[in-house]
Design brief:
six-stranded parallel β-sheet, alpha/beta, cell membrane, disordered N terminus
Length: 365
């Protein structure tokens, strides 16, 4: 096949494929910024699942956000669904993309790249793909990025295939519509005492059970942060997690505040008010890291070197075990040692380090 690989032609059209999830979309933003820096006149579209489009709101590196609903389609096989799939393929082909970059490495994203009709399909190295069969759909594959590298580096490695020598700039700040910010600001106006001191947010939830730290430890940690470090405690929660926040609040002796229910964009607006995030490996952790907010993270089954908060102002706490970084949703040895062996004192020391190095203690945001 004769494929045009000239990446310098004017108005080159790129399709950027990273459809999910929250952390993965955020971790792809440095790659987007690099692509734009190397191709300032190009047309760049990002293909993303509907729940995560808010992360890309008003991003100046993008010309278009194309929403796809593969999660919905898998659960709803109807004639209407088939029509929607057909229309999505037609929309992608109508753009006549020159290059499709598949940063996800799944069979479904490889198939999407193929169906887009892009003249050149760039993909991850087989060893970096979550589903190695993904490589069947790419014309060119990036070099292997080995152990000890972050997922951000894997994405940047792929973008370099698209040409250019510009260094990676800082991604643009996450933004939200003004009405969203105003809606969230009402919570702080209704709770004026909360902002009397810098705010430490605690997010106890996570995507699967082996990532969870015990709630009573979070409560003890929160009490010590409030009493010893002088921060106010905001308990954050995601879908189905409010009882976790309520349990922590009821176990605490110090005052705390439970955050309101928020969408992704409302979470961005909420976290603009905090000085520090303490969290397991979760979406809110990466959201705060993407906003430049200092974080302290608690890791067990997932590797913080590969999937931790990206950037210089973050502290991570983990206790490496023989079975660490198994990536399993159920603990094979039942005892959850990788999380159980992390003591309150371990996390508190990381909080103290973060406060001394990164947190502005003179005012809340």
């Amino acid at each position: 096949m004769n494929i045009d690989t000239n990446m310098t032609a004017p108005q080159k059209k790129f399709l950027f494929i990273r459809v999910s999830s929250l952390g993965d979309v955020l971790h792809a933003l440095p790659a987007l910024a690099t692509l734009r820096a190397n191709h300032p006149t190009a047309y760049i579209a990002w293909l993303v699942e509907a729940p995560y489009r808010g992360l890309l709101y008003n991003n100046p590196d993008l010309d278009e956000i194309i929403v796809i609903r593969t999660r919905y389609w898998r659960k709803n096989w109807t004639l209407k669904t088939l029509g929607e799939i057909r229309d999505t393929i037609a929309l992608l082909r109508k753009h006549q993309f020159d290059v499709a970059l598949d940063l996800q490495g799944l069979i479904k994203t490889g198939l999407i790249a193929l169906l887009s009709g892009a003249s050149l399909r760039l993909g991850l190295n087989r060893k970096n793909c979550r589903e190695p069969l993904n490589t069947l759909f790419s014309h060119k594959r990036a070099g292997f990025v080995g152990k000890g590298s972050h997922v951000v580096d894997i994405s940047l490695n792929l973008v370099r295939l698209a040409g250019g020598t510009a260094p990676t700039p800082d991604p643009h700040p996450l933004t939200v519509p003004q009405n969203i910010q105003e809606k969230v600001d009402v919570f702080f106006k209704d709770n004026p005492d909360l902002k009397a001191k810098p705010i430490a947010a605690i997010n106890p939830g996570a995507g699967f059970p082996t990532k969870l730290w015990e709630l009573d430890r979070f409560a003890k940690l929160a009490d010590r942060i409030a009493s010893e470090q002088g921060l106010h405690i905001l308990l954050a929660w995601g879908p189905g997690e409010k009882p976790m926040a309520e349990q922590i609040a009821s176990a605490m002796t110090e005052k705390s505040w439970i955050a309101p229910k928020t969408s992704i964009q409302e979470s961005i607006a909420l976290f603009r008010h905090i000085a520090l995030m303490i969290s397991s490996d979760s979406g809110p952790l990466h959201l705060c890291a993407g906003m430049g907010i200092p974080t302290v993270s608690i890791f067990g089954p997932t590797d913080p070197v590969r999937n931790g908060a990206y950037g210089p102002n973050h502290q991570v706490v983990y206790k490496e075990q023989p079975c660490s970084f198994c990536w399993k949703k159920t603990c094979a040895i039942v005892t959850h040692d990788c999380m159980q062996k992390i003591a309150v004192e371990d996390v508190l020391q990381a909080v103290k380090t973060s406060i001394s190095k990164f947190v502005n203690m003179t005012t809340s945001r």
